[in-house]
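User: Last request for today: this protein with FE2/S2 (inorganic) cluster, please.
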Amino acid sequence: MSRLFKASVIENRQVIKNHFLLTLHPLDNIGKPRPGNFFMISVDNCLDPLLKRPFSIHRWLGRDFQILYRVAGKGTSILSNRKPGDTLEIIGPLGNAFPSLRSNNKIIMVAGGLGIAPILGLAETINKYRPLCFYGARTHEELLCIDELISLGIEPVISTDDGSLGEKGNIVDVLKKYLSSQLPPPPRFCLYACGPGPMLIALSDLAKTFNLKGYIALEQNMACGLGTCLGCVVNTTDGYKRVCREGPVFPINEVIWE
Amino acid sequence: MSRLFKASVIENRQVIKNHFLLTLHPLDNIGKPRPGNFFMISVDNCLDPLLKRPFSIHRWLGRDFQILYRVAGKGTSILSNRKPGDTLEIIGPLGNAFPSLRSNNKIIMVAGGLGIAPILGLAETINKYRPLCFYGARTHEELLCIDELISLGIEPVISTDDGSLGEKGNIVDVLKKYLSSQLPPPPRFCLYACGPGPMLIALSDLAKTFNLKGYIALEQNMACGLGTCLGCVVNTTDGYKRVCREGPVFPINEVIWE
Amino acid sequence: MNLTTNLGKLKLKNPVMTASGTFGYGKEYSEFIDLNNLGAIVVKGISLKPMKGNPDPRICETPCGMLNAIGLQNAGLKEFIKQQLPYLRNFNTKIIVNILGTSINEYIELAENLEAAGVDAIELNVSCPNVKKGGIVFGTDIKIFEELIRDVRRRTRLPLITKLSPNTADIKLFAKAAEDAGSDIISLINTITGMSINIKTRRSRLANITGGLSGPAIRPVAVRMVWECFKTVKVPIIGMGGIISAEDAIEFILAGASAVAVGTANFVNPIATLDILEGIKSFMSGNNIKSLKELTGTVKC
Amino acid sequence: MNLTTNLGKLKLKNPVMTASGTFGYGKEYSEFIDLNNLGAIVVKGISLKPMKGNPDPRICETPCGMLNAIGLQNAGLKEFIKQQLPYLRNFNTKIIVNILGTSINEYIELAENLEAAGVDAIELNVSCPNVKKGGIVFGTDIKIFEELIRDVRRRTRLPLITKLSPNTADIKLFAKAAEDAGSDIISLINTITGMSINIKTRRSRLANITGGLSGPAIRPVAVRMVWECFKTVKVPIIGMGGIISAEDAIEFILAGASAVAVGTANFVNPIATLDILEGIKSFMSGNNIKSLKELTGTVKC
Ligand SMILES: Cc1cc2nc3c(=O)[nH]c(=O)nc-3n(C[C@H](O)[C@H](O)[C@H](O)COP(=O)(O)OP(=O)(O)OC[C@H]3O[C@@H](n4cnc5c(N)ncnc54)[C@H](O)[C@@H]3O)c2cc1C
Ligand SMILES: Cc1cc2nc3c(=O)[nH]c(=O)nc-3n(C[C@H](O)[C@H](O)[C@H](O)COP(=O)(O)OP(=O)(O)OC[C@H]3O[C@@H](n4cnc5c(N)ncnc54)[C@H](O)[C@@H]3O)c2cc1C
Ligand SMILES: Cc1cc2nc3c(=O)[nH]c(=O)nc-3n(C[C@H](O)[C@H](O)[C@H](O)COP(=O)(O)O)c2cc1C
Ligand SMILES: Cc1cc2nc3c(=O)[nH]c(=O)nc-3n(C[C@H](O)[C@H](O)[C@H](O)COP(=O)(O)O)c2cc1C
Ligand code: FES
Ligand code: FES
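Assistant: Here's the final one, the structure of the complex with FE2/S2 (inorganic) cluster:
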């Protein structure tokens, strides 16, 4: 079992515009990834792009696993052209994971946009605890995995920026309304979140306001993914921490937003 | 009609180890290439490899055309992975061509190794003049296009370095023997040759010895293929000349070998 | 949208020009693009006498870049004025001539003759690393560098561009010296000296042993230098070094360039210049930018 | 085949080492490779006091390369000796410590303490371009540079490596100065200062604005500088800058390196060092080379 392995592409399916679901078959034995973990993937063998790219584990299928990704630039664009049978070099699983549930906690999962990628995998492991799920996207087409959530017994509360499905507006505001309706909110509520920076910042404020605990999965440019380059840090109350090593999941109140 | 065009890969077939026959379908109208002309081909869209790579026209199929190439390094290795349906950006046809036959000439085609690539295309246009063909390779497996030559009515004289087919030894020595047997060689003999450097040098000496005219297709590292970078020069009796512009075909007695 | 680009008294219809030595004298590219659409054509370096250049091989590819040691091959001033300039004059674009000499007097003679011949501007190549007798000494010794610019300045009214070498510890010093000596414009960067060895033959891949590195590989170095110079001098800057796309060009503009020159990209894609111009236009309209002046040097720091 | 590599009094079992800052303190890579097989491990730069480093983002990718502005984050000398060194001592490989200070005395104190702690050699980082208070002044002012080396030399018997910056007009001068001042070995190149701008946000991609360029993009520059230094000094050279494969490593050796360091490649491929070592071995056996000494600096010119 090695964290440096090759995997062959089983499927690389466009789910909506610019978004792809990649199913990989590791050619070696790999460790079972936990929700929040990520993989560093070589999208090509040439020197440009040079570095591997980080992607969260989306779903673990026993031996195969899935990545849900968006075409953001050069690397992901090349990745989207990979075909079944192609072989990719990968490092992982890497990083920490969403912490296991304490018995008395009620988890509120919050996903913004593609933040659903790790959140679905999380949902699969904790659905027995009947977590709540708040999930926002720009428009109803970009709401992915709704069926999967429902089949896990999780009925997500939904919002879209354009109001095309669920409430109109951003998901943190919807969550805020919910929490306000619960006043005083049970202190056993705990947020597990992933999404774009502005969402996470708003969520931090919310957590502060309602005095909630929570964990958020962060992103940062990465070179090694192993903790050696010190390139992927974020500022925390405890100094700079490496997203690839101490993260990507951080206690929400520890992250210092500039 | 433009010399900058895209073409889709029809077939990219390995003919022997490391050697591929690429059939391309231009997506725009292109000029009909003449034997000796070459194309600058982008093997990929990324920045590494950066420059297009030069390849001789092998066969012109009316609208589609073929390139016969060897995996020599990074670029050709990537090219060998291109699949039917892939689109390549190409410039060409470029460069000069083997000159048209003067009526009283008897052409001796000489090919060394992959030098057969342009020579076969040449054979297709001049076979009616019943040229002679001397063709050498390292071993019998690397003798390509023999059937094609024969079907053009040209029975090549063959040599291999290892003696596995035809005479053992290099093709220039074989040609020398032939010319010696013709002494004095008819001055209307004219060499049309392509092959590795050492072969062309030996052939130059031979041409001098027997006072033969001849034309050789040269290779040189290229950046633009258009005559602007001045990167592809070879030294001639008339100063530095651009292989991409004044060449790739040069009178054999004009080239100065260092 | 106003694409007009004023580099002091040199007025371009748009900010996209060609980099010297990568566009020949324009003719070869007229097959692919309408030269009228270029902001300016900067031609291959011209010397007083013809130069035959370096032996071959002269170029090789490196990761995301290439090395060249052309050795300033050119047909010389007279031939340029007789053969190339008349053709270039058919187009409604500025013609800038890159010049190089082995003495200050040669530069002056070149400038005077080119002014008489009616070119639009002169670019002093003081930074070519390939020819021992070429401009390199002017590019690395700051005193001679200043003297050269000052002397040429006195003898021509043409807009004077000084092209800076990146092979220096502090390019700001040269930018400042060029400005002080009367250069109207600075352009940067020229190539970075490099070397590549074929391990099979155990020889350099270039007959000249070393050559100049160009292409996307050097872009971060070039952008940094443009930004440093922008903070140092007031004269307008022509930015270049690894520009392949409109995004790259805009990077240089944000770093402080008023115009950009496209070099190695012309080899990769003969319509690169106009692709880049189109991309700049759509960036401007997409971001509601009326004039590139709004962008030059506005990287937030 | 003899892979032993003598860098003066520093004897390595083979010529492949890690480049400072790209291999942490070894631990993370022990999962992927047997550290016993490395010629040497050069650890991330150590300062007297802990340094917290630069704000994020600290890295970004560029064509065939990357920029970094880590800002020399490290836990400081004491922590290194207590926490990292004991682990590294479990392996049969040389431990070289890259050090940086804001004054000559700091460098001396670092060297003395590390000698007492039993490391195998010291690499003077005088060339990090990222921290204003860091070593940069030592790397660009040749007088202070010489003084630093001379003073550290007097206070330690450890093999002394001086790491040279490429951000200079003439690296030969620094190579010579390092040799004259008593450096046993020189290593080169450190990163080239660069910058990259995100045109959407109009900010530098690095919080520090500029950063150091590394990776294959800079290899031609590094090879050229190794070759220049090889012709200038007699002390052995550790070559680095963009080495990804054994072919690249051999290029540096032909240019004049006695050993090579692998940097950015470790990020791309965590087993890069040993892949390169294997590749060097098969090159040697394929070409009937008994010892790398036969190759160092033998590029035909
Ligand atoms: C721990 C972790 C998990 C991630 N999981 C996923 C996932 O499950 N699905 C997914 O689609 N994406 C995920 N990302 C983001 C993904 O890594 C980037 O989108 C990708 O690296 C962009 O590469 P590119 O070459 O296409 O873009 P580039 O051309 O490199 O850049 C395009 C844009 O993406 C930004 N970008 C580049 N690298 C990163 C990065 N590491 N993080 C954030 N933004 C970046 C750049 O700043 C730029 O704006 C994750 C990132 C991290 C750190
Ligand atoms: C006019 C012309 C016509 C050609 N026709 C053909 C053809 O029909 N079939 C074919 O297989 N090859 C042909 N070549 C050679 C072909 O261009 C090179 O093999 C190819 O560019 C190598 O690219 P690479 O990236 O695979 O190798 P690289 O990694 O760039 O180099 C690998 C090796 O090939 C050598 N090489 C690189 N470029 C050239 C070049 N332009 N010419 C010669 N050697 C080079 C390098 O020096 C090196 O030793 C032709 C070259 C020219 C100039
Ligand atoms: C083949 C070639 C020839 C060049 N010739 C010249 C020249 O004659 N004069 C000059 O000032 N710069 C010359 N340059 C440098 C370019 O003008 C430009 O400064 C450099 O290549 C960086 O830009 P790029 O990365 O876009 O190519 C040449 C560059 C190349 C690649
Ligand atoms: C992320 C990173 C951190 C680095 N940290 C240091 C350092 O602390 N000290 C040092 O001397 N060099 C440091 N370097 C420079 C490398 O040791 C090396 O000189 C340079 O990266 C060129 O080699 P490469 O292209 O193989 O990476 C660092 C490089 C990188 C990429
Ligand atoms: S990516 Fe290198 S330390 Fe995190
Ligand atoms: S390849 Fe540029 S001039 Fe021939």
